[in-house]
Amino acid sequence: MKFAPKLLSALLIAQCTLVFAKGNADTIFYGGPILTVNPKNEQVQALAVQNGKIVAVGTKDAVTKEWQSDGTKVIDLKGQTLMPGFVEPHIHIIGTAMSEVLGLNLSNFTLPYDTKETLGAKMKAHLKTVPQGGWLFGFGVDPSRTTPFMAELTADDLDKVSTAVPIFIINQSGHIGYVNHKALEIAGVTDSTPNASGGGVYVKDAQGKLTGKLIEPPSFTPFMAKMPTPPTADLVKAIKQTTQMIAAAGVTTATEITVGFNSPLEGEVKLLQGMAANDDLPIRIRAYLYGPAIPAGYAGLKPNEGNDRLRFVGVKFISDGSTQGLTAALNDPYIYPKDTKSRGNLDYGTDEIYQQMKLYFDQGWQLAVHANGDRALDQTLGNYEKLLAGNPNPQVRRLRIEHFTINRPDQVAKAVKLGVTPGFTIGHVDYWGEAFHDHLVGPERANRIDPSADFKKAGGRFAYHSDSPVSNVSPLNYISEGAGRLWQKPPRKVLGPDERVTVDDAIRAVTINAAYELMSDDKVGSLEVGKLADFVVLESNPRKTPVDQIRNIKVKETWVDGKKQSWQ
Questions:
Q1: Residue from 282, 275, 288 nearest 232 by CA
Q2: Quick one: CA torsion of 156, 159, 163, 167, rounded to 10 degrees?
Q3: Same domain, residue pair 194 and 260
Q4: How far is Cα 163 from Cα 182, in angstroms, rounded to an integer?
Q5: pLDDT over 70 for what percent of the chain?
Q6: Which of these, 116, 150, 299, 372, could form a disulfide with 405 (CB 3.0-4.6 Å)?
Q7: What is the spatial distance between Cα 260 and Cα 276, in angstroms, rounded to a whole number?
Q8: For residue 73, what is the domain's CATH number?
Q9: What gap in Å lies between CA 118 and CA 112, rounded to an integer?
């Protein structure tokens, strides 16, 4: 085929222009340390972005020479640090929105601790905002961080706030609740009501009378069913505000770990899908369906359905309760109260939860199981081993265990063998370390909480998370906690010095390892060519900052898809 000279010239110009466009970066960053968190853990001088993806990392001269054009925006970091956007692998986003935006936030992560009196005063002040026919709903009461130690609320205590307005308060752990007598009346829960399946307990005193304390989420259901549902517009606004808060902490990918926990599953699925479609989510979401909330025969979603902004990847189960709440399932008794025989409880029989897990495992869903106590870990690891029997490459399924709190060395070894990635609520060390060590489980077990170093030595991966609203979203805080393991309460001490890891190991726990846990490490978690342009700009370099001061580094900017996000 022959072309006229003018046409041939035009084709050659178009071809050259197309080639040149490949080097036409939208943005180039330089002028500060750029931490790639790639397999070699390299630090580079410059990074280029085009169409929401990373197209170059390397020296400033090489990147600018190949990728800068007249239309490229060049950003001088002026000494600030650029690193991968943080990945939060375990958050209750809808629950955080309902607890911290729409409800009364009673969480207190500072000193001094609250008392029953200060908690009552906060509830009475909030009572004025409760509309006619509404409930006083709050989150964040924590007896292990209350003066006196383990002072628990009762229905009588809450009656002092109001006998006319139903009150429902969830413990900081999310596994215990407290209600007043009005709430019991409206929910229809009486002294003769049987405990709820799935580990739910309506606690009674020695005379068989309800105390107002509830154990495990299944016991919450009668109360949540009677509470007014927030208008969709209010909930959307609260979720948007919550995800903006998460973005402000430098997080670019986060998890909704229990879709269907707060309201019917299909409604929460559509809510998240609608927000993603309307560009109301400033960050990427990886979602897990709450196993007990999935209707029989459900076929509304397939494993891994969605896109880079919102994807449904797994199913979550809960096998036991809270360690600081004394309900996690241990092999040996707690040490509080003195001479107790209590070891907590498993929420399900071993075969009962196995059959539920197998249904979704066989469908191809990733599984995530909450297991705080070593007895729950024995159950979960045993069931995982059974599910993976005959599988030559168990790492492909990337089964998760959430928290992995009270543990033994043999459980770490077994988890690594099965390709299990644990997610540690590393705030346990900071906020509850003293309580675990001195009051709840004793030094030997407390020192092994969140065994990061053990997993590294065994050749496994681990990730850090907040479990928000259980603790605050702050990956920089997790890095401090993982590398330093200092507990908060004076006199501050190191909890389990042998479980400290390097700052680089802790950084990986909030970036590439967390992305791996979410089956998203091919897209995010490190700054490599071809990955999505998600990163955070920090005022200083965590590698060069004293360990306990890393938590105080300011997040200056959060970028998703090569675009700076605004949360103010």
A1: 275
A2: -110
A3: no
A4: 6
A5: 96
A6: 372
A7: 17
A8: 2.30.40.10
A9: 11
Same domain, residue pair 498 and 383: yes
The number of folded domains in the chain is 3
Could you say which of 224, 257, 292 is where a domain stops? 224
Q: How far is CA 223 from CA 88, 185, 227, 248, 295, in A?
A: 30, 10, 6, 33, 20
Six token digits for residue 377: 């870990």
Query: CATH no. for residue 448?
Result: 3.20.20.140
What is the number of other CB atoms lying within 10 angstroms of the CB of residue 552? 13
Secondary element (H or E) of residue 287: strand 284-290
Cβ–Cβ < 8 Å for 158, 127: no
Residue 567: pLDDT above 80?
Answer: no
This model's pTM is above 0.90: yes
Interior/surface letters 380-396, b for 16+ CB within 10 angstroms, e for the rest: bbebbeebbeeeeebee
Read off the CATH number of the domain in which 210 is found.
3.10.310.70
Q: Which domain holds residue 259?
A: 232-522
CB-CB contact of 170 with 135 (8 Å): no
Residues 194 and 270 placed together within one structural domain of the fold = no
Nearest of 467, 402, 504 to residue 93 by alpha carbon: 467
Q: Residue 454 corresponds to which tokens in the numbers above?
A: 């053990």
Last residue of a domain, one of 26, 44, 79: 79
Tens of pLDDT along 294-343? Answer: 999 999 999 999 999 999 999 999 999 999 999 999 999 999 999 999 99
What sections of 253-408 are H helices per DSSP?
265-277, 350-363, 374-387
The SS3 assignment for 368 reads strand
